[in-house]
Amino acid sequence: MSFKVAIVGATGNVGREMLDILAERAFPVSEVVALASSRSIGTEVSFGDKTLKCKSLEHYDFSDTDICLMSAGGEISKAWSPKIGQQGCVVIDNSSAWRMHPDVPLVVPEVNAAAVAGFSKMNIIANPNCSTAQLVVALKPLHDKYVVKRVVVSTYQSVSGAGKEGMDELFNQTRAVFSAGEVVTKKFPARISFNLIPQIDVFMEDGFTKEEWKMMAETKKILDPKIKLTATCVRVPVFIGHSESVNIECEKPVTADEAREVLRAAPGILVIDKHEPGGYATPHEAAGEDATYISRIREDATVENGLAFWCVSDNLRKGAALNAVQIAEVLINRKLIQPRQKAA
Ligand SMILES: NC(=O)c1ccc[n+]([C@@H]2O[C@H](COP(=O)([O-])OP(=O)(O)OC[C@H]3O[C@@H](n4cnc5c(N)ncnc54)[C@H](OP(=O)(O)O)[C@@H]3O)[C@@H](O)[C@H]2O)c1
Fold first, then answer.
1. Is 14 annotated for ligand binding?
2. Residues 38-54: pLDDT tens digits?
3. Complete domains list, the chain, with CATH
4. Which of 72, 226, 329, 340 could make a disulfide contact with 9, Cβ separation 3.0–4.6 Å?
């Protein structure tokens, strides 16, 4: 059984990663179609050892496509996902457009795979924000065992989280600094090279940013509405890989040794936690990998049943493309979709 899959945003950071991951995991495809804006018609992208030529989303007919992996931003998703869903193609969307919609499941397969079953109302499933995805993978086993009551998280988010333009801005600014050229700031609200920026997305009325709000709201929807979470999201001059400093308060007593074992046994997690130089994961090691890495696990004696840890993952993979492909695999493994085209 194999499926016709369309990638919307195939020329982007996440779209290219999706193509790689479909090929790496030998996803059962009958055909893969690369779609982007009309600017990219004919642009070549790689899928395994094949080369695909991009077509325009605007002129594509989804009526015989089974799965659409959508990664072209919120506005495109708002305009297109419902129309594609109505044509009987299941959309797995990476933008924030549908995440909090009551008829759209928000899914991280290691945490709430069963929620996928609610997709059929709109034929849309949402992928969480990249920072939320790795956080809930880490929190889930701890919540199951110790009941997490409150989370304080500070993020160190790479520039690839802001798309191709974000990566270009870090590269160009760094080059300008070394060649005594002009440092031009366009994509980010402040200079990012040799700096960091305590603002991701727009400010909300209460002084938090939208990115911080997303982490709070999405964690509640995916994991447990009772969890209290406060976040500070920071952009750092790293190309790929988001890091998080996480502090949790639990209902039940927790030791660092036991938490380490609980995390080690959990799906999607790799614990690297030696008390020596380099005995922890950094974004450099996480880039290109599938796991969520947990390091620096320690008891926090300043609160009752407190634990602190460090969490790193590739934002383009677990934070976006890998999670989307895993959702598609859940749909197939649970027989929630069938190919629309009969095999020849
Ligand atoms: N990067 C991350 O860590 C991350 C994590 C989670 C979620 N996301 C979400 O994933 C989405 C894409 O992110 P990205 O990092 O891949 O961005 P990106 O590198 O800037 O790529 C954007 C993609 O969208 C396509 N696109 C733009 N306008 C379009 C249109 N009118 N019709 C069809 N396609 C259009 C672009 O095609 P052209 O080349 O033709 O312009 C390109 O393929 C965003 O919603 C983002 O919020 C990103």
1. yes
2. 999 999 999 999 999 99
3. 3-127+321-334 (3.40.50.720), 131-158+196-313 (3.30.360.10)
4. 72
